[in-house]
Amino acid sequence: MKTATRIALAALVLPLLAAAHKEAHTTEEIEVQRALQAAAYHCAPAVAQFTAERKRSWAQKVLGGRPSLAGYEDLFDPQTYADLDVQSGQKLLSCVEEQEADIRNNSCVLAPEVTQGPYYHSEAHLIRQNIAEFQFGLLTLLDIGVIDVETCLPLPNALVDIWHANATGDYAGHPFPFPGLENEMPATEGIRKGLKTGYPRLKGYEGENWLRGAWPTNARGVAQFSSIFPGYYTGRALHIHTKVFTDWTPQPNGAFKAGRLAHTGQFFFDDDISETINKMWPYSTNPIRDTHGRVRNWNDGLNIFNDSQGPEGHYDPIFRLEKLGAIIDQGLVGFITMGINASAAYALA
Ligand SMILES: *[C@@H]1O[C@H](CO)[C@@H](O)[C@H](O)[C@H]1NC(C)=O
Ligand SMILES: *[C@@H]1O[C@H](CO)[C@@H](O)[C@H](O)[C@H]1NC(C)=O
Ligand SMILES: *[C@@H]1O[C@H](CO)[C@@H](O)[C@H](O)[C@H]1NC(C)=O
Ligand SMILES: CC(=O)N[C@H]1CO[C@H](CO)[C@@H](O)[C@@H]1O
């Protein structure tokens, strides 16, 4: 991260508006959330264009040296991206008139604010792109775009912080089962149906940081990560957590000091693709595979998947996945775009 860029950006940062919106509870909070989501709709064509460019860039980067691969030519055929092309005459990444724009068709997400859950490490994650460390699993590259819903422009220098479970459903620092809760059964009813207690970090595992990391968006508003496809645990659909900070400072230990929190959300995966991957090793060794099994998106605990689609259900919080090679074992790249309000700030929790 270049210091000059940071200083330039810091100068642009508006005075902190300390609206506390971790989760929308009050009528006012719900209204703010609704306004944010509604504002995002008109960015759909900009997001579509944004994603199409990123897909082309990946296709060229990944398959550039291997033209003998079947399907290689398709990657350079504009028809391959037909669903993502903007209508002729539109300016790239500019705001457009509000129109009927179904974001579901645009390989993106403009996620509302959802809870961070119990597995965040508040002393901050390391600033790094490769978060896999020595975790086994299917190579999954994450291409995460950030746009500002107020301008529909990609947002550079926003720190995208992510964390997720490993292939068999554990978070770094929180190995299951927690001592004393070995025989805990998931809740059978209510909003916590299917969930177990959110286990606190276990002593002796404080140093574990795998599958956690943060990286700033580049000049084109994109943060890319190398990781593995996540695994599942009781009560929750497969997901990756994220927070976006528009103000942050790198620390000498490689982590960051959080400033303005602009977004808290979760990304999901297509249930059919998850089903395929969960047949692969080591996903197939998930300890709850034959008992509780994997929770489908529609049945997500705390209703987080449904809530992530926004009050009108128009948001698509699902990564669009493409194979990196000819077969799935060679890995995937997932595209998603977050719409955030760069001038809003939420309470750090
Ligand atoms: C973005 O946040 C600012 C500051 O809280 C607020 O005034 C504005 O209405 C928000 N915009 C949207 C689209 O929610
Ligand atoms: C996931 O993490 C847990 C806890 O550290 C570990 O026991 C398990 O082996 C890991 N899963 C895989 C597939 O490596
Ligand atoms: C989520 O929405 C779907 C479709 O509307 C519905 O069938 C399902 O019951 C909802 N899930 C929860 C946990 O309420
Ligand atoms: C290309 C594409 O995904 N089109 C879909 C857009 O959304 C409508 C309604 O959900 C679907 O019917 C199309 O298949």
UniProtKB/TrEMBL annotation:
What molecular function terms (GO) are annotated for this protein? Answer: iron ion binding; oxidoreductase activity, acting on single donors with incorporation of molecular oxygen, incorporation of two atoms of oxygen
Instruction: Tell whether Ligase is among the UniProt keywords.
Output: no
Alphabetized UniProt keyword annotations: Dioxygenase, Oxidoreductase, Signal
May I ask which residue range the UniProt record assigns to the signal sequence? 1-20
InterPro entries referenced in this protein's UniProt entry, alphabetically: Intradiol_dOase_core (IPR015889)
Read off the PANTHER family from this record.
INTRADIOL RING-CLEAVAGE DIOXYGENASES DOMAIN-CONTAINING PROTEIN (PTHR34315:SF4), PTHR34315
Listed name of the protein: Aromatic compound dioxygenase
| Record lineage | Eukaryota, Fungi, Dikarya, Basidiomycota, Agaricomycotina
